[in-house]
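Objective 1b. Sequence-to-structure analysis of Septum formation family protein.
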Amino acid sequence: MNEPDPGRDKPGPDARDLTDDDFTAVDPVERHDEPVAGRPARRAPRNPVFVVLAAIVVGALAAGGIAFAMGVFDDSGSVGGSDIGEGERLVQNAFTRSVAGDCLDWPAGNPGQPTAVDCAQKHRFEVAGGIDTSLIPGVEFGEDALWPGPERFAAIRDEQCPVAVDQYLEGRLDPQGRFSVGMMYPSQAQWDKGARQLRCGIQENGADGQPAQFSGRVADQNQSYVWPEGTCIGIDPENRTPTGFPVNCAEPHAFQTTGIVDLAIRFGDRMSNKPWPATGAQNNYLSSICPKQAERFVGGAPALDATTLNVQWSVLSEPSWLAGSRKVVCYLGLPDKRGGFATLVGDAKGGALLINGKAPVPPPAAPPGRALPTPVPLPPGIAPNPDEAPAPAG
């Protein structure tokens, strides 16, 4: 394969009703009952905070480590008190009533207002199961226990939720795909009123590190990273790696997609139980598709040559294949001599393209009547003739 490549690689304690007035936005500095979320490799920005029942701690299983909760290192302090009266009752909502297989959605940034929706509709969390907190050693989930805090909830997620998700999906979570293991847990305000429910589940994170909406059950869809034709994928300026999130092509990006290829057509769908096609077999197949696809995308071979970009594609690893992923993406990009991807700005399809800040310099056209041959080694001491002459006419 061409390098670089973007893809390789039931209810808890009984509860009673509260009015919706208990779920109002509060000041992000003075109040600290916010939804909590984490993401791998980078610190999340501050977001508005809310008095909520449930918070989210997001895991990225493929990253192999704790994705620390949002706000843990913010100087605003994310574990402060609440002005909700101690005598108020615990709320019962879609989160507390959720069981494995339920799908939950909520307004962006406010998981404290979840609603149960049909999984065919857009949602942000698919419940894989609850955690029986009575089985967690010690007394940290006792009646008088202090709120564990985001880091402890993140640790519980990493200890408990991968197993729950694996059982729920019967081992079919693509470890290199777009979905990650998450956990919903009570805010400190709700904890102080007795909430102890925890829910493991699956979600897809957006560019802001928060759960993004997606449609359909995870088990029923392709999980690998693919994007529609013409999508530009952002680039991390520090290490020149793809961010995995679409950006406007006028912004710096790592590559631009030319289309999606379904490997099920050649190697069998997820129900066929056919073995994983080795990387070489995938490369052989995709090398006959992606170049032609790229030429169609940009408007022909000369236009493709003028971009000076390489035709590249992703492949599926064996774990991804066994999880049911079947789709890969073809794209245009260039390696950077410092490692990673060159930074592109502009649309490769007829736009004013820049590569690392410079306009591409197309290769010289072949002289009339002949094609530029592949250079061959010359004997020692013999230099090639630098002059090119057209072939004789006639």
